């Protein structure tokens, strides 16, 4: 078990370094000059040079890369040239907002997607199946940014049921920082009104983010359910007189959950990527927004940092999925 | 606005974040708006037309040769932690700005060395310049005074407290910092006993101001209409028209100093040909430029904005005239057109993009194709810093940081090559000479004449399509009072100090 | 007394894209309490569909055209789903063919059985008993089917058990509801020869102990003879013959039954005709065509442990003979065959083909060499690429190894189809449109396309029905004399080996335990292993049971 | 039994290809039975038609090349401007229709490039095994560990906005999906007997890859490509929305929305129609892919 954990950590480290190298190279192939941006429009050449040398941008690219990798090994993601702060610190500040959003969206996706998938598998080719099929594929096909705007207009601007954007109303002070997830922190602090308003704020972006994920969870669950329901052991269970409900809800679901879990792991990473869009639309102060604004100002250290962070969460999520697999599937449980 | 137990908090909705508050490092509009709220300078720009008002300095004098400036400070000014604002603080602040060599440093560094600043007595400070420099005073409103004691206390590795000042302040301004949630909101709390007092009266004084980041215009509009914010910037021209009709909303619409021009690369490529440049300038649909802003703009009549001293209406500045355009085209190296010219604009700048479309449409009759290319600002500046990489046409907005005509004229000086506003690589020795002469002269009449000649000559050389001056606009709730416009501020920037809420 | 199960003139269609398929055509079958009925018939004759219909779990788009099934006086032909709960698994239960796929891999064995018990208790309306009570009952059942250490088994997962154990678990499950009828659908087909006998014994003993009524399906007539007193023969959806097993075996009436019985090879009969032909061929071509010296294959498993599949094995095959390789499953027969073909690399040792050492060969020379030796695989269903037509499949070796023109290849493919006695038309068909025997012929055609000198046949008939097996074996012998081939023939079926091989080696755990003339080995086995092998072969050999 | 004369008669096309014809008829039959598949097909065909003939049928084809008409800007939908006009007075209907061509191009290039690279690498990795596979799969996993959109964003941000860069960036992040799909498929096909059979008759590796492995991987690839057409269009639109995709005056739906969102909600039609166009196109390709999966992927086939 220990060697297993050790190996996992080792691959994780390897992948992280790989991602860092990949994004670093990709983002630095272009001629952009972020020092020029932060120096201000009128800055003279020597002022720009001051900033360049301060951030090591005057070095050659391979040198910069070596420095960056060296820092990375020590847990330093470099410094954002725009905000002059360590990227790690900033990513840590913005990550909870993103994670909270992703968790809520994932929750919605699973809670709605799995039962719907089950139902449409049981009533395969029936009207319910056709409707959920179009519904779920619509989920994947809807442009998140567009859908977000439309929801915003409908529920926030027009009906005024929900807030337009942000995580909290202006005057509401965030609860004391424990996990960084407002929904959790406000409960810990016992501030139910804060919990309530932050729930209102998260609803729309979470729906937008969860929709495609819900859809693919539904699709995978349905497909797997159909296959499992045709499998021999389900036939056998039926032949042995086990009730249909029990077969579907217990036996088949557990088997169908394996690929569904894999999809959830995949979608987790995908969601982290899509927050780039959703956070832009809903002004959600997470790492997606941070990445976009950094990318738009050619400030690449944060872009690399965020990509790494997303990769990290993604790998962690998939490791958890692997563990869940082993927990569900006894065949994978051998020493 | 938000009602709190301490009073009303005014909410400003803006699109641009404030990554670094340090007054000697950055000075874009959102940053400067907050800096102006928490810091004081020796002097301050106010009013339209902009005038330099005494602030921390109650009076000042200049030596005969224009090289020595002596400032006498007010005696009651206090930093937020209670320390007095004295001559040493002023000296330290200027030294800090110059030594860091970032942000505002470029304004003074060629004329002022850190050693040139000296403390005469507790409330008197003296600047000795390397040479006479008439625009000196016009730059001072951009230099804020920080509290040396606080800064030194937070210094790490001799960084002049840069790290700390990123999201803290050590100022004496009318506000002090409250909540600081990067990328979300920034709060400034009013200083109860601000040394200069409050223009709207203590009773009307707000408890503070919140600068809320709202990136989407649609969300900004919604927030304004719902009264969640009191004033917003950065709506589209059409939005302003639309929202002006809504109840309870007033539009602030003022003539600004930001010029828009389509800069040609006058040294290389097709646009090195003056006839082609003229042809383009005459083909341009200037009316459409104004239409892009729904009328809230005025055409440039000279390189120097109207609100600036020394401005003249240059006669014969090109307006749309297809016949003339074709005439010039015939004289150029491309008599039948058939070329494609790039038009580069800053990615995300909506109006610049639309003007690109206008240009594209305007040049169709000349059989010239336009390729609209958005670029990230740093890339655009990087490309524009060299003749070889500078595109044929670049759209550039320029906001002069002082009211002195030199601020604009110097853009056409050969020394400015490499700067973003000098992407045309304009080279006319006569003009260069005149600019040098004007900037060192302290006789206004002489300067005015020189600037008139400079303007005429530049227009004749057509290094750019002279575009328009866009109006500065904000949409605010009508209960928000005290709004004061001054053209020398940046687009979007509002003086938060005099604002107050009139409750019905 | 009414019959327990009465199937009257039962006709069933299955709707497919090409229109309805008449799967069952007027089945009449009665089963009385205490009967043991066997159903025998070739693959696809409708056995499974028939018994599943009895349980109400027939194919999805099946339609009863005519007739009825009644159980204990109750018509169950079109019983609604909710009424089935009182019958299915309780009064009629079933044992399935493949014990692995019929157990849910994610639940413990104990859980699955006690769930069945709970379901039955619920259906009976007696109220579900406690977990502990169910556990006791489950362990009783496990004990009853002869599984050791039931309390440990209870919390094990299917993948931790062997095939025979799993089949016993399935039987335990089927017995959980104390059924009136137990249906066994080919309960032994997926099992090893030795285990087969054990499971059949178990069923036999249960029938006696619990006085069960049993319907057992098999295409293995020997298995049927072991268990069933009465027997029905199905052919193409019809019951062509039924009666006492004894009678049918001794006096088959229907033509198909006669064919079926004739096809069963008899381990105890020394084949004369074949042996004679082989001896005739021998002297004409002396010398050794293929030799293996000290061959060894070591597999390294993921956990790092070494496993020696073939160990220091030497053999030599004379030109023109049929060389038999026999051994139990896992003894390394296929591994050996693949090494001889150089399809897998031997860990050490040499292979000499026609005087040339081919163990070091690679690239072009190896490809050239392959013209002379060919392989026929165990499973014809997966040895053909489903996306190629038969014509392509047969032409492929020619296209690879020769530069014949397209037209010539077409012609040759047609000729080859002729040789393997298939219509020319078949070259436009796809593998899935052919029966197993036909596919195996295509595989052979493909193997002989390049006129090889040696054919290695790895259990070429074990995936086929017995009647088809006989055809293929006959055909192989014809072919050999026609084309002057040498065979290496692998099988675990001793009867087959005896029927066609000249010389044989017996393998056990990768080593040769005995070798010599086939007849000699069968008449006077020297090793205990060989004796045991022959004995268990004899026991399951269909012919052995005919004499019961 | 055939008489000898009959047997030697050359077979007609129909007879020779009876199996294929039946197969295709079966596909068509199954496909027709599903409403959603037919809907998908209809949408895709419509989209392809518009991409082919769009510029010929729209009322204001010049709107796609940047013609402006400031006097008619931001007009609501009417009989002259079916979908209204944009901020420069261009006809949104014309731009949306002509945008189909841009989208088609985007989808085809991204999916095509990704598929070519991904299939090649995937087959090599799956078949060769060993360190070749290890290297290819490590790199693939690396790419897969970063959500594509985030990576594409970084790439375009570095290369600079524009449709070519955007397509390039998406192609760069897209191929790993194919590698994984094809590698897994190849691994399982490699174990099939018919591969060994082909080796035993002396087939070389390229022959086996081309004639045996690739055709057997084709069904999932076709399904994935159909789905990816939609997803690629959507992703390109997303980048366009962030402001990094296609540039004016090229009519690309995502960048149209990017501009249009600042005109919400008062000028709702501006973003509504391009958004609906993206949605319907992507929906079409996905429904089609889903329908294809049902008929091509034997796992979900039950007849
Ligand atoms: N779901 C189905 N759809 C169409 N045809 C089917 C279906 N199930 C079975 N058949 C057909 O019904 C016939 C009888 O099949 P069945 O499974 O009963 O054969 P079997 O005698 O059990 O064969 P085996 O010995 O191979 O198990 C076969 O021709 C088969 O193709
Ligand atoms: N690729 C492999 N890796 C590891 N072990 C293997 C591999 N192939 C075969 N073996 C093992 O080698 C042994 C011999 O296998 P082989 O297939 O040769 O047996 P066999 O005699 O042909 O059996 P059967 O009658 O079941 O076909 C078996 O125990 C098998 O598990
Ligand atoms: Mg069967
Ligand atoms: Mg074998």
From TrEMBL, chain A:
Residues 95-325 form the ABC transmembrane type-1 domain. Keywords: Cell membrane, Membrane, Transmembrane, Transmembrane helix, Transport. The chain crosses the membrane at residues 9-30, 101-122, 134-157, 202-221, 302-328. CDD domains: TM_PBP2 (cd06261). Belongs to the binding-protein-dependent transport system permease family. GO terms for cellular component: plasma membrane. It is a multi-pass membrane protein. The keyword Transmembrane applies. The keyword Glycoprotein does not apply. InterPro entries: BPD_transp_1_N (IPR045621), MetI-like (IPR000515), MetI-like_sf (IPR035906). One of its GO terms (molecular function) is dipeptide transmembrane transporter activity. Pfam families: BPD_transp_1 (PF00528), BPD_transp_1_N (PF19300). PANTHER family: DIPEPTIDE TRANSPORT SYSTEM PERMEASE PROTEIN DPPB-RELATED. It comes from Aliirhizobium smilacinae. It is found in: Cell membrane. This is ABC transporter permease. Its main location: membrane.
TrEMBL record, chain C:
GO terms for biological process: peptide transport; transmembrane transport. Keywords: ATP-binding, Nucleotide-binding, Transport. It is found in: Cell inner membrane. It is a peripheral membrane protein. GO terms for cellular component: plasma membrane. Residues 2-261, 293-534 form the ABC transporter domain. The keyword ATP-binding applies. The keyword Lipid metabolism does not apply. GO terms for molecular function: ATP binding; ATP hydrolysis activity. InterPro entries: AAA+_ATPase, ABC_transp_ATP-bind, ABC_transporter-like_ATP-bd, ABC_transporter-like_CS, Oligopep_ABC_C, P-loop_NTPase. PANTHER family: TRANSPORT ATP-BINDING PROTEIN. Belongs to the ABC transporter superfamily. This is ABC transporter ATP-binding protein. It comes from Aliirhizobium smilacinae.
Automatic annotation (TrEMBL), chain D:
Residues 100-289 form the ABC transmembrane type-1 domain. One of its GO terms (biological process) is transmembrane transport. SUPFAM superfamilies: MetI-like. The lineage of its organism: Bacteria, Pseudomonadati, Pseudomonadota, Alphaproteobacteria, Hyphomicrobiales. It is a multi-pass membrane protein. It is found in: Cell membrane. This is ABC transporter permease. Belongs to the binding-protein-dependent transport system permease family. It comes from Aliirhizobium smilacinae. GO terms for cellular component: plasma membrane. The chain crosses the membrane at residues 35-58, 104-127, 139-156, 162-181, 229-247, 267-289. PANTHER family: D,D-DIPEPTIDE TRANSPORT SYSTEM PERMEASE PROTEIN DDPC-RELATED (PTHR43386:SF1), OLIGOPEPTIDE TRANSPORT SYSTEM PERMEASE PROTEIN APPC (PTHR43386). It comes from the Bacteria. Keywords: Cell membrane, Membrane, Peptide transport, Protein transport, Transmembrane, Transmembrane helix, Transport. It holds the Pfam family BPD_transp_1.
